[in-house]
Amino acid sequence: MNGHTSKPRILVVDDDPDLRDLLRDYLGKQDMDVRTVADGDALRLALERDGCDLLILDVMLPGDDGLALCREIRAKSRLPILMLTARGDELDRIIGLEMGADDYLPKPFHPRELLARVRSILRRAPEHPDGDGSVRGLKFSGWTLDLGARHLVDEAGVVTPLSSGEFRMLNALAENANRVLSRDQLMDVLAGRDAGPFDRTVDVMISRLRRRLGDDGREPRIIRTLRNEGYVLNGPVEKLL
Question: What whole-number distance in Å separates Cα of residue 37 and Cα of residue 102?
């Protein structure tokens, strides 16, 4: 959160002026500090000047599209990102998640659903992510999940950045090591809702985490798939105090 205000700072990037006005007015009435821009250049300038707590990013933008901008931001920041996609465009949603987006919302949408997604993401991206400081990290399979910095560290000390969604999912799996978590449970961790029958959000996030961990997707040894049950982080986990 901004150190000068308790209001969450939301930055909306969409080339539709009517939608920008709608979201600025609607979210503003929900006690949020909302700014809007129309393209990637204005987005970069806004982030450089003021930053934000959550980015609402449309896929279809003039110039650099939302997917390219998501990848660019994720390469240097864990800023929570909610992507807006065309309804039925499953490929854009999957690619957006693979680029590091935390959630997506198909257009057209009801503003109340957007508000629910925004609040869910903000709840899962606290101002002080290291909590009460009692546990600094979780160590497993040669990796350490740093709960303060919210990234992975290997045995050689090399840091692997994580998106906020990746961190939340890996943290949930590590906290429940050797216990199967269903797709609905993991979807609730990510976005505060159950997974739909055709929703691949959890599967994409698991695939991303396996790549981060160097875990073979065909024969995974760290994050295992239990068919029709869910996913489990396999092996002992040590809490670092």
Answer: 20
Nearest to 107 by CA among 33, 16, 231: 16
H helix intervals, the chain? 17-28, 40-49, 66-74, 90-99, 111-123, 164-175, 183-191, 201-213
CA angle 223, 228, 232 (to 5 degrees): 20
State the residue for tokens 């279809």. Answer: 60
Contact in structure between 178 and 232 (CB atoms under 8 Å):
yes
The rounded distance, in Å, linking the Cα atoms of 192 and 136 is: 25
Q: Give 192-214 pLDDT, tens digit per residue.
A: 666 665 578 889 899 999 999 99
pTM: 0.63
Whether 67 contacts 86, CB under 8 Å: no
Distance CA 121, CA 112 (A): 14
Task: Show the CA angle centred on residue 103, arms to residues 34 and 127, nearest 5°.
Answer: 55
Between CA 81 and CA 93 the distance in angstroms is 12
d(C-alpha 114, C-alpha 58), whole Å? 13
Those residues with Cβ within 8 angstroms of residue 126's Cβ, 6 or more apart along the chain or in another chain:
none
Compute the distance between CA of residue 17 and CA of residue 26 in angstroms, rounded to an integer. 14
* 3-state secondary structure at position 139: strand
